[in-house]
Amino acid sequence: MKFRKLVLTLIFLVCVTNLWSQEVKKFKIHTIAFYNLENLFDTINDPTKFDEASPIMEMNTGRSEVYKKKVHNMARVIVDIGTDGAGNAPAILGVAEIENRDVLVDVVNDPLLLGFDYGIIHYESPDKRGIDVGMIYQKAIFQPIHTSSHTLYIYDDITRNRVYTRDQLLVSGNLEGDLIHIIVNHWPSRSGGEERSRSKRVGAAKLNKRIIDSLQIIDPYAKIIIMGDLNDDPINVSVKDILKAKAEKNEVELKGIYNPYESFYKSGLGTNAWRDAWSLFDQIMMTQPLLEKDYSSFRFYKAFIYNKNYLTTKRGRWKGYPFRSFADGGFTGGFSDHFPVYIYLIKEVD
């Protein structure tokens, strides 16, 4: 495991050439990622939750074996995200669709991840289905300073009853000395149709905006990363009108938000599919200070969708879709019905 410690960061070279000399700059690179783990529930019935409706609890036999395979599959994906460029598993990973802290403990203790010494941040949400968001981080790279969970109060447009959904997780900490803030989201679903459910996601975006504003009141130059399964595309009202996220870096003003995934969406790329149409619900956005060209501290470099071939369904009616874990009442041996997304942050070093 000592070898893994030696590759916690990768130094890569960028050569800048002019007529007189060649300047070589060295950068440190870290992966920041988000992954919807698709119904990562344990096999224990929790009487305080509606977890009995989860796919694994609906199985009559083989639950323990399925759970172990599901956990290992999640670890397999996590260890791979961003390694092509960073040479390391994610420094920070936000997650959605987890039942509790215990399932994350099992994931980070999988043999594939154990050597990375991941810490866990998790709060129980009031979500009716019993699913939460959370975050894991490599302790040698990121040190949390403050964490908090922010409840979303929304109501059904017709019944006016409260809709119990996921809290939003805020984590502030030092990424090798740089203060950054991470907001992990899983906004309300499109159950009942996009139009009928739109107000719920608008409400989620407004809560997100309040969290962002509270950080920027303290520090207008705060480095804030917004990530999650938004159940909306980059062009929807919640993202474009409430968060006012921009698709072009040069249009982002101080306190503004940049969304690199809008260009992915307009190019026809997605992270999840339904009825032969792709959506890009999984996104990572950031505030303007992460876009500056002074690389003496960590800045945004590039965004990606982790859609490697092994994460794609090879045959059948879902061919080409993300290779999900559960379908038709059973375990498929797959991973998730969402592709992960990730960005690289880079910092110049001597």
Give a quick summary of the entry.
This protein is α+β, with helices and mostly antiparallel strands. It contains 7 helices and 20 strands. It is 21% helix and 34% strand.
Instruction: Output the CATH topology.
Output: Deoxyribonuclease I, Chain A
Measured distance between first and last alpha carbons: 27 Å
Strand content: 25-35%
Q: Order of SSEs, N→C?
A: HEEHHEHEEEEEEEHEHEEHEEEEEEE
Which shape, going by the Cα principal axes? globular
SS-based class? alpha+beta
Description:
- With 350 residues, this protein is α+β, with helices and mostly antiparallel strands.
- It has one domain: Deoxyribonuclease I, Chain A (4-Layer Sandwich), CATH 3.60.10.
- The protein is 21% helix and 34% strand.
- α5 links the parallel β10 (178-186) and β11.
- α2 (63-80) crosses α4 (101-108).
- The protein starts with a helix and ends with a strand.
- The relative contact order is 0.15.
- The model is unreliable at 1-21 (pLDDT under 50).
